[in-house]
Sequence to fold (73 residues):
Amino acid sequence: MPATIPRQETCPLCGAVFDAAGQGCSPSCPMSKGCAVICCPACGYTFPQETGLAGGLRRLLDRLKKDKERTAP
Fold:
């Protein structure tokens, strides 16, 4: 089972929002244990789950962008 943190992810390719839990890469991969690569259930695109400081910064920037879009005329 991949070591993903359960939280909402947004696919950078198609924009689908999904729960990252259980969306890890192929379990047959020798690197899958402890791997933070997740797979979008909508389009199949694989990308690393951002955690720690990088993930926190990304979530902050995304939230600020959404707030700015809401307040724009």
About this structure: The beta strands are 8-10, 17-19, 37-39, 46-48. The CA atoms of residues 6 and 61 lie 20 Å apart.
